[in-house]
Amino acid sequence: EAGVAQSPRYKIIEKRQSVAFWCNPISGHATLYWYQQILGQGPKLLIQFQNNGVVDDSQLPKDRFSAERLKGVDSTLKIQPAKLEDSAVYLCASSLEPQGIHEQYFGPGTRLTVT
Amino acid sequence: GDSVTQMEGPVTLSEEAFLTINCTYTATGYPSLFWYVQYPGEGLQLLLKATKADDKGSNKGFEATYRKETTSFHLEKGSVQVSDSAVYFCALSETLAGGTSYGKLTFGQGTILTVHP
């Protein structure tokens, strides 16, 4: 079975520019997560989708970050405008459903550098 | 809120040495506990998990026991190999009353393990 796909793998932008990341979860997985992993820290949840609805976006900086999951499959995370502190790896994960203890499968991540 | 604290790293060991990576947690409900591993150049992978007190998770020679009294989930392996060199993350997922978990993972900061031949 194919894993979680993310693109691009690397992105370098200047501050105040915008950027978008794409994620394709494992087929049939209803739940999709975006995490931010700053160097030297563990991943932190930004937003969680159940199908195409938002379950938790309490830690998403909504003044600059946005995310959508149209049709309950692929998802896009956008940053506009970017700040230096947004430099991090952005991880996408998916699981069958949130209820119960279902394993989350992680993609390879997108490494963002803001200069 | 929920939090996970891992021992400071990095950890450097010789092959066949005994490994312990300490992990303690703070949670308001009844969390499930996980260890994830990130090998060089790869994504995060689930290593093992435990869903209730006194459960022992195990995989690939690694073990961790869910200790509610000490709020701990320490990772151990009796004899490490060079191929175990990776970053290890302890994490929890809150399980709400009624047994519903909403899946959100709260991670520790990670521990870098390097094993030398």
Features:
heterodimer; A: 115 residues; mainly beta; seven-stranded mixed beta sheet; B: 117 residues; six-stranded mixed beta sheet; four-stranded antiparallel beta sheet; 12 strands
Describe the structure.
The complex is a heterodimer of chains A (115) and B (117). Chain A is mostly beta strands. Chain A is built from no helices and 11 strands. In chain A, strands 2, 4, 5, 6, 9, 10 and 11 form a 7-stranded mixed β-sheet that branches. Chain A has a 4-stranded antiparallel β-sheet with strand order 1-3-8-7, with no helix packed on it. Chain B has no helices and 12 strands. In chain B, a hairpin with a 5-residue loop joins strand 10 and strand 11. Chain B is elongated, with a radius of gyration of 14 Å. Chain A binds chain B through residues 3-4, 31, 33, 35, 40-45, 48, 55-56, 91, 93, 95, 98-104, 106-109, and chain B through 4, 32, 42-46, 49, 51, 89, 91, 93, 95, 99-110.
Which helices and strands, and how do they pair?
The complex is a heterodimer of chains A (115) and B (117).
Chain A: E1 5-7, E2 10-13, E3 19-24, E4 31-37, E5 44-50, E6 53-56, E7 65-68, E8 75-79, E9 88-95, E10 105-106, E11 110-114
Chain B: E1 3-6, E2 11-14, E3 19-21, E4 23-26, E5 32-38, E6 44-50, E7 56-59, E8 62-65, E9 75-77, E10 86-95, E11 101-107, E12 111-116
Parallel strand pairs in B: 2-12
Antiparallel strand pairs in B: 1-4, 3-9, 5-6, 5-10, 7-8, 8-9, 10-11, 10-12
Which percent band covers the strand fraction of chain B? over 45%
Shape of chain B: elongated
**Residues in β-strands, percent of chain A:** over 45%
Beta strand count of chain A: 11
Rg of chain A, Å, rounded = 13 Å
Assembly annotation: heterodimer
Q: What is the total tally of β strands of chain B?
A: 12
Count of helical stretches of chain A: 0
Number of helices of chain B: 0
Largest interface: A-B, 28 and 25 residues
Structural class of chain A: mainly beta
What letter string, H or E per element, gives the SSE order of chain A? Answer: EEEEEEEEEEE
Which H/E pattern describes the elements of chain B? EEEEEEEEEEEE
Shape call of chain A? globular
Characterize the largest beta sheet of chain B: strand count, sense, and whether it forms a barrel: 6 strands, mixed
Average pLDDT number of chain B: 91
